[in-house]
Fold:
Amino acid sequence: MSPRHTHYDMIFLGGGCAALSLLVRLLRSGHFSSARFLVIDRDRKKTNDRTWCFWEKGDNYFESVVYRKWEHLNFFSTDFAAPLQLNGYRYKMIRAVDFYSYCLEVLEQSGQVEWVEAAVTEVSRTNNKVMLKGYVGAGAASSPIELTASTAPLASDAAFTWHLDASLVFNSIYKPATTSARQIDLLQHFKGWIIETDLDTFDPYRATLMDFRVNQQEGATFVYVMPFSKRRALVEYTLFTATLLSPAAYEQGLRDYIEKQLGIHSYKVVEEEFGIIPMTTQSFSFYKDGIFNLGTAGGQTKASSGYTFQFIQKQSARIVQQLLHEKPLQTLPGDSRRFHFYDRVLLQVLAKGYWPGDKVFARLFARNSASQIFRFLDNETSLSEELSIISSLPTWPFLKAASSVI
Ligand SMILES: Cc1cc2nc3c(=O)[nH]c(=O)nc-3n(C[C@H](O)[C@H](O)[C@H](O)COP(=O)(O)OP(=O)(O)OC[C@H]3O[C@@H](n4cnc5c(N)ncnc54)[C@H](O)[C@@H]3O)c2cc1C
Structure:
């Protein structure tokens, strides 16, 4: 399938969380009713390929698709365990399938968006001319697992080169790259099971943000538990390390946790999720070679935590405001360098093992309120708040890491 037209006002390469978040806002603003949009994605976005969890005060722009929210969170480790002081924050979950279907309906109803299913392998832009190469067919449509999926076409796929023109091109197709010799790369990788129990087991009002009471020999390893009802919960076994485990190792981790820590012996797995999120000091550009990069591809994944959803929302809102005020997008202020520095330091501590990850998070949550940590991880704290948070951490490992990433 090729695009029907040669001219579009905006082209989106990748139609996942970032592209849909921006496109829905643009369409609903009412200011782009004569614009024509093209989205190119290799997937149709019909499956529940992930769940997004995040914290916030107040309502989300996508509040209507929030699947569950919790006002109580626990933290566990061998050094510190306690209910967290949320001070008005709530922890929320959105299932990707609900988000996609909500957004796709807005796109459909607008009659302004054309969706082309294809894998893009190359893009270049000169003035308003856009050259795209890629392929269409079964290989392009196969659902990818980021960072490990091959983008190689199948023999039956058809290669294309399209010449289009567009006023704006947004890219959210992420490609891992080494941008400096000192780049630090970890992966946040996780396997989750939605389990159902025979007996009432969970408190549906209380979730576990992090439970580090699991084997730490691979590196920072924790489990989170998001109960949907007394008998149903998502249990996710998560690591911040450089390499993936064997599929069996995640399942063993889940089984051990469910049986030994939760004390559940009779349950069934009703859904599974596997994911990899880059935790990297790779340098990202919002604007490069005529293209605006969104989402993970635009550096919106917080390097030290992997949280992305809310950064995408904030970025989308800023882009819409900029366009509504007819200001060039290139002038949109970038992310704070100060927070990038903190991310690099924390990643270096974890990557080099200067201090164990379970102890870092235990110390952060033991000596600061969770609401302060949330604001810090959202890049929203002031310098004096940051100094107070930093002073709660041991000096030597963090100084050593800081001196090597400056
Ligand atoms: C399983 C999982 C769970 C996550 N959970 C959380 C969470 O709880 N909280 C949080 O804040 N963040 C989470 N994240 C991180 C982040 O929020 C998501 O990855 C988010 O979807 C990023 O949005 P994006 O638009 O940058 O990328 P995506 O949503 O991945 O969108 C990119 C799009 O590009 C398409 N694409 C890729 N390659 C090509 C190609 N060559 N040609 C055409 N199309 C292509 C893909 O099909 C996809 O639709 C999670 C990530 C994963 C993978």
User: Anything to note?
Assistant: The radius of gyration is 22 Å. The chain has ten helices and 18 strands.
